[in-house]
Amino acid sequence: MKWQAVFSILLLAIAILLVLLFIEIRQKVPIVQTLNRTIFSDDEKALVTYVNKRWGENEYNSSEIIVNVALYNYGYEEAKNVVMTCGIYDADSEGNYKSDIPITKITSNLGNVASTSYKDTQLYITNDKLIDDYSLSSCFIASCENCEILDNRLT
């Protein structure tokens, strides 16, 4: 019985090699290149996400709110023209959002993020009188070139 299974696997391997050889002859493409095209995607993209680290009033300019954000690129390609939107939202003392509409927000092009790296950055938002100790900040990656946004994949 065992020799029949081994023989079947050997025949299957020979059949696959013959098919690949036929493809190489027909397309004049090396077998290795054909295998790479099958196994590895030609459209490799950056895989980006972020962490909204902290936010607060600028000590030196009370008319500004500073939002610290870390961008992470887990892909093997550079993420280009990463655009992020951050907003400050009204919340109650228990941390529940009072409204889906931000008190104030900013959209900013943060530039590029190299492959398998992170970029620590700050966004400056105009301070508003409605912002208090209970307000919450929320950010998201609006767009980027040559990348996939990890949060979009998870939702």
Number of structural domains = 2
Globally, the shape reads elongated
Q: Which fold name fills CATH's third level, the topology of the largest domain?
A: Immunoglobulin-like
**Assigned CATH architecture of the largest domain:** Sandwich
The CATH class designation of the largest domain is: Mainly Beta
- Estimated structural class: alpha+beta
Percentage of residues assigned to helices: 25-40%
Number of beta-strand segments: 7
**H and E string:** HHEEEEEEEH
Q: Give the oligomer, counting copies of the same chain as homo and different chains as hetero.
A: single chain
| Strand fraction | 35-45%
Any overview of this molecule?
The chain is α+β, with helices and mostly antiparallel strands and 155 residues long. 26% of the residues lie in helices and 39% in strands. The chain has helices spanning 2-27, 31-39, 150-154, and strands at 46-57, 64-73, 80-89, 104-109, 117-126, 136-145, 147-149. The strands form two sheets. A four-stranded mixed β-sheet has the order 5-2-1-7. It is elongated, with a radius of gyration of 26 Å.
Topology (SSEs and partners):
Blueprint: H1 2-27, H2 31-39, E1 46-57, E2 64-73, E3 80-89, E4 104-109, E5 117-126, E6 136-145, E7 147-149, H3 150-154
Parallel strand pairs: 1-7
Antiparallel strand pairs: 1-2, 2-5, 3-4, 3-6
